[in-house]
Amino acid sequence: MTERRRTRGEHQKALAEKNKKKKNKPTSSAKTWFKRIFLAILAIGVAGFIGGAGLFAYYASTAPELDEELLKDPVSSEFYDKNGELFATIGAENRKYIKYEDIPEDMVNAILATEDVRFFEHHGMDFYRLGGAILANFRDGFGAQGASTLTQQVVKNSFLQNEKKLKRKAQEAWLAFQLERKYSKEEIFEMYFNKMLMSGRIYGFGTAAQYFYGKELKDLTLDEEALLAGLVQRPNAYNPLKNPELAKKRRNTVLGLMYQHGKISKAEMEEAKKVEVQAGLADDATRQSFAGSKYDAFLDVVINELEENGDGTAMAEGIKVYTTLDPDAQKVVENVMNDDSNFPTEEIQSGVAVIDTKTGAIQAVGGGRHYGAERGWNYADDLKKNQPGSTMKPLVDYGPAIEYLNWSTGQTLVDEPMNYTGTKQTITNWDGRYMGAMTARKALYASRNVPAVKALQEVGTEKAKEFVGNLGIKTDDLYESDAIGGGAITISPIQMAASYAAFGNNGVYTDPHAISKIVYRDGKTSKNYTPESKVAMSDYTAYMVTDMLRDVVGNKPDASGTAANVPGLDIAGKTGTTNYSAEDFNKYNLPNTSVPDSWFAGYTTNYSIAIWSGYEKHFDPITTWEERRLPQNLFKSIMQEISANVETASFKKPNSVVEATIEVGSKPLKLASDYTPSELRQTELFVRGTEPKEVSTVYEAPELSTPYNVSASLDLEAQSINISWEHDAIVDPETDEPLPTSFEVTATRDDGQTFALGTTESKGLTVGNTLEDGNYTISVVAIMDGTRSEPGTTTFQITSTSEEDLETEEPDEPEIDLPIDPGQEDNGNNNGNGENGNNGNGNNHNNNGNGQGNNGNGGDPGNNNDGNLQPTTPTEPTNPTEEDQSTE
C-alpha cells in the first residue's frame, strides 16, 4: 500500500508550524542568559562582600588601640630647619581645655549643623551621608566629598595619618565604632571641641575664642560662633585676620546650615550675616598673651604652604615638617626688623623675603616689625593685593623684549610725552621731565616710565603675560599700565623674590617654597614638597636684564637704587613705587609727594631679596625720600650681613651674549665710529648674531688743527738746528686723552728746493745743520691716520762766514771802548732785528756783526743767544770803511 502524498495546503501548514517553533526558541534562550548573568553578578557580589568583609576585618585588626591621652590632647607636630635641627613644636601647648557642660548650646548647634548634623543619632558612621558622598565621588571623582563624622575626625586626628586610602578609611570606621562603644557622645564631642586645629598654632574652640575675640565662650555672639565653627574645614584660609572675605563667606554658609537644620530662625540668620566679619576681633595686644615659637614669621609661611597643599589639618596628626629655613639668615632678618633705628617713623612697616637664587627655597622671612605669634598679617606672604610699581619693568617690559624681540641693552627708546593707547591719560615720569632718546639700559636704571610703556607696546601684552607666567606670576589680565606696575598684577615679596631669582639663575625658575618634605606619624610615609625647576627664559635674557639691573645700584647719574649697593658684591636690583590716583589726592587731601608703596628687589648669585615698605592703612602715605628709600636700606643691611661669610660668585656672561660699542640714539643701532663723541659711545650687550655691523657716519673725522708758534734757532756750537712748535691734538672720545699725532718737518729754500728734516711725535725736533746758505721757510705739518693739517711755518736764514771776512786791518787811530755794564747798553744799538728773533737769537745767528747778540722778544735787554752774556774786553777797532757785517 502506497503512502499518501501531502497536499500543498498540508505542506504549507507544516512549514508554518516549524517556523513558529523557531521564533519561540530565541525567547527561551534570552531568559536563560539573563538568568546566568544575574547569578554571576550575585556570585561576584557575594564574593566581593565576603572578600571586602575579610579585607575590612584584616585592616581593622591592624588598627591601633584607643589611647585616651591621644584622644583628648592634640598630637604635636615638629618643624626642622634646613640643617635638620628642630626649631618648633606645635600641639597641646597653650591650649584652653573646655568641658562639654561649659560649651554654649549655639556653639554646639553651629558645629553639628556644619560638620555632623546626625551626630547624636549614628554609631560612629553616618550611612546617609556616606551614600551622598559616594554619589558625589562617582560624579566628581574620588575624594570630591567626604563623609567623616565628628567621631571619625577625632579618630583620624588621634591615631591615623591624613590620606585617602582604603586601609585608613577601614581603620577609621572600625575605631569610630569602638570609640562610640567606649565613650558617650558628650565625651566624644568634648574631645573634638578641644582637639581641632583652628588656625596656625591655635588648637581648640576655647583657645580660638580667646585668640580671635578675646572672649570666653559664653560671651560669643551668634555670628562669632558661626565663624569659629567654619574654621575647622580650612583653618588658615578662613582666618578672618588674613582673609576677611573668605572668612565672611564661610561664616554665612554656617549660618545658612544652622537655619536649614532648624537651629536658628531666619531672622537670626539674616541679622548675624549683617555683622562685619572683623568687627569684634581682638587687637594685637590681646593676642600677645599667646606665646609664639622661634621664627614665627617663617613658621606662618610654612603653615600656609601646608594649607595650600591640602595638608592644612595634618598638623593635628603629629607630622614632621622639614623646612628650608636658614636660621642664621632668619636671625639677621629679625634683628634688622626689630631695630627701630632702622626705620624713619614709628608706624611704617616692611615685609622681607630672602630666597635661595638657585633653588627657590625660602631662607628667611620678615613678616613685620617685632613680628610675633599674635600678629595675623604677614607682610612677606599675605601682602598679595599691593601693586609692585617699577619693580615690574624687568618682568613685564624689558625681559620679554629681549626674549621675544632680541632687543639689545642699547635699544633706542625716546622718553617723550605720550598717552596710554586710546585714552587721554598722559604717562608721566616721577620727576615730571622727559629725557629724549636713550638706551633701554638707561631707561631701566633711571626708571623712566614712557620708555617702559613703549617696550610693552612693542612686545605685546599676550607675550608679556606668557613671560611673567613662566616666572610664577599668574594674571588673567595685563594692561599697558602694568608696564610701570600700576595695573592688574599684584604680588607678594616672596613671589617677587622668586621671580627675580630666575634672572640670577641663568633663566631657570623655581616656585618659592618653605617646605622640602613632610613625614607622617608612622615615620615611613612622606610627601615631597620640593617643586621642580623649569627654564623660564633664555640665558641671554637673564644675563642682559641682570647687567642692566647692575646699573640700578651702580654710580651712574640718574641711577635709582644706589642706596642698596653693597661694596664687593655683584648685585642687580630694581626700585619701585606706586601712586595714588588724582581722585585719591583730592578725596584724602594727600600731600603731593605721597605714595602708598615702596619696593626694592635685588639679588646676587646666592640670595634674592624682595622688600616692601608702607603703612598698614593704604591712605596713610609715604611722603619723604627717607621713607621711600627704606627698602633699599633694609636690603643693604640684610644682604651685607648674610653674605659676610659666604663666597659669592659674580654673574657670568653666557656665550650667547656679545658686546659691541654703539652710537647712542642711532636707529637702527650702528657701531660707533672713531669720531663719535664720548658721551654717545656706549658698550652694550647683544644676543649673538644680532649685533650691528654697520658703522655710523653721523660724525666725520675732525679737521686737524695747524701747528702754531713755530720757531727755529741755530746752535753754532753743536752745528744743529732746533725747531719747536705747539699743537692742539684731537681728543679720543672714549678716553678723553689726545689721539696719537705725528709731525712732519721740512725746510724750503727761496729757490723752491725742499729738504725733509724729519718726522716726530714730539712737539720739537733737533737736526744737524746740513743746509746751505740761504733764506728758508720751516714748515711743520700734523698727521693723524693719514689726515694732514695745514702747515705751520716760520722763516730762517743761514749765511756762511769765511776766514777772509774774519781778518781785520789796523786802524790809523785806534779807539778803545771801555767795558760797560750790559744793563747800561744802548738798547737801540743792541736790538738786532728782534722782531724776527726767536728765543733771543735775533735773526737766528749771532757771530756776525754785533757781538753783544741780537735780542729776541722785541729786543728785551739781556735776552740773548746764551741767556747770560758777560761784559767783554775791548776789541780791535774796525776800519770805518769796512762793510758792516751785522745781519738783519
Describe what you observe in this structure:
The chain is α+β, with helices and mostly antiparallel strands and 888 residues long. It contains 25 helices and 28 strands. Strand 3 and strand 4 (202-203) form a beta hairpin. It is elongated, with a radius of gyration of 48 Å. This is PBP1A family penicillin-binding protein. Residues 850-861 have a biased composition (Gly residues). Residues 802-818 have a biased composition (Acidic residues). It holds the Pfam family Transgly.
State the helical fraction: 25-40%
Shape: elongated
Biggest β-sheet strands, sense, barrel: 5 strands, mixed
The proportion of residues in beta strands is 15-25%
Number of strands: 28
Low-confidence stretches: 136-146, 802-809, 820-888
Structural class estimated from helices and strands = alpha+beta
Radius of gyration: 48 Å
Strand order of the largest sheet: 2-1-5-13-14
What's this model, at a glance?
The chain has 888 residues and is an alpha+beta fold.
Write the layout of secondary structure elements.
Layout: H1 8-61, H2 68-72, E1 77-80, E2 86-90, H3 105-115, H4 127-140, H5 150-159, H6 166-182, H7 185-195, E3 197-199, E4 202-203, H8 205-213, H9 222-231, H10 244-260, H11 266-273, H12 284-287, H13 296-308, E5 320-323, H14 327-337, E6 349-356, E7 362-366, H15 393-405, E8 412-415, E9 418-419, E10 426-427, E11 436-439, H16 440-445, H17 449-459, H18 461-469, H19 493-504, E12 508-509, E13 515-519, E14 526-528, E15 534-535, H20 539-552, E16 572-577, H21 582-588, E17 597-603, E18 607-614, H22 625-628, H23 630-642, E19 657-663, E20 681-687, E21 708-715, E22 720-726, E23 742-749, E24 754-760, E25 764-768, E26 774-784, E27 787-788, E28 792-798, H24 803-806, H25 827-830
Parallel strand pairs: 1-5
Antiparallel strand pairs: 1-2, 3-4, 5-13, 6-7, 6-18, 8-11, 9-10, 12-15, 13-14, 16-17, 17-18, 19-20, 21-22, 22-25, 23-24, 23-26, 26-27, 26-28
